[in-house]
Amino acid sequence: MISIDDCLALDAADPLAPMQAEFVSPVTGRIYLDGNSMGAMPRGAPARMTRALIDEWSVERRHAWHSADWLDAPQRIGAAFAALLGAAPDELIAVDNTTLNLHRLLHYGLDLARADARRSTIVFEREGFPTDCHVVQGAVHHGAGRWQARSIGTQDDLDAALRDDVAMVLLSHADYRTSDRWDMASVNARVHARGARVLWDLSHTAGVVPIELSACRADFAVACSYKYLSCGPGAPALAYIRRDLQNRAWPAIPGWLGHADRMNFVNDYQPALGLLSLITGTMPVLQDVVADCAAQIWSRADPGYVFAKHRSLSDTLGALLREQCAEFGVEQVSPAAHDRQGGHIAFRCPGAGATCEALLADGVVGSFRQPDVIRFGLAPLTVSHADLWHAVSRLRGILRDERWREPRFQQVSV
Description:
It is globular, with a radius of gyration of 22 Å. The chain is of the alpha/beta class and 414 residues long. It has two domains: 4-32 and 302-409, Aspartate Aminotransferase, domain 1, CATH 3.90.1150; 47-298, 3-Layer(aba) Sandwich (Aspartate Aminotransferase, domain 2). The strands form three sheets. It has a seven-stranded mixed sheet with strand order 2-8-7-6-5-3-4, with helices on both faces. Strands 9-10-13-12 form a four-stranded antiparallel sheet, with helices on one face. The chain has a two-stranded parallel ribbon with strand order 1-11. β3 (121-125), α6 and β4 form a beta-alpha-beta unit. It is built from twelve helices and 13 strands. Helix content is 35%, strand content 13%.
């Protein structure tokens, strides 16, 4: 049996423990296991935001674009996260949101395939995250018959779907419910062998598990930054294009700040080199300054320590759920093997939605997904092993006493 002392000993030996102080501490008694939905606030974010509002916007006005370096924030933020995702600094940029980036990178890849009339199909997961499905459906809808979609149900279906007509494959690196993770290197190799390309949605893996975009020859990827990466609600997402695929097609949404000669206001569009062409118009400056705070923290975090900490948290949580809650019907649905897990651990239990509400009332912030899954997101920089022990202990009490049956817990929140 894992004791609280065992967990405290693991925390004492954690090389990332000092970095917890760089984020705002939880409210006393509250345990945040929702890094897969919303990450912790960087401690320096309020002061940095105040400086942007008062010293930069209010005082400098338009000169702040240069004096405060607002214009270069997308590249700077992207470069700061590059090592964490196994990318080169010029292969990653922070711009817009996850959905827009999935849209623009899918269309970029389709443009590269357009010359081959045989390639007309986009492969996607029919039970994937809704926005991934919607982006593919949008491409088909607006493609005037040029593109069609082929859905797969499980990972075992991929090879059968990879025919000579495939242009692009869009996959979520880890399932948003079960946390089941694809083998990125294997998928890339199999798709490339059929002459197609892959777009990865990294929303539930970036910042928690090993990702080597460049080494495994990933083509395109998008990472949500407000989850584990703690860049704040509405923060710009990260977009990746492998270096040798850059500068080969127009962006799906051309805009003046993505022009090769942006400040001379040329009306005939010419894409800027590299990832700058993904910028459309004015970037979200106030969101960028918070994202910049988080990015600078992450740039100092050793990726090896991050991934080792997540592995330890995952193993600890799995063992605690078995030891303390299996007798009450708790069953882990995430893969047991760490190389198959995304960032969160998902488990079934009696009255999952109501149980998640009861946990919230007890100060444990997780998340519920239909039909019967509770998710605990394991953010390596802010979650401790002791947090997990206390969270599972509270879960055990709720299940033992059947408090989840109380009427006040039957209305399930988002």
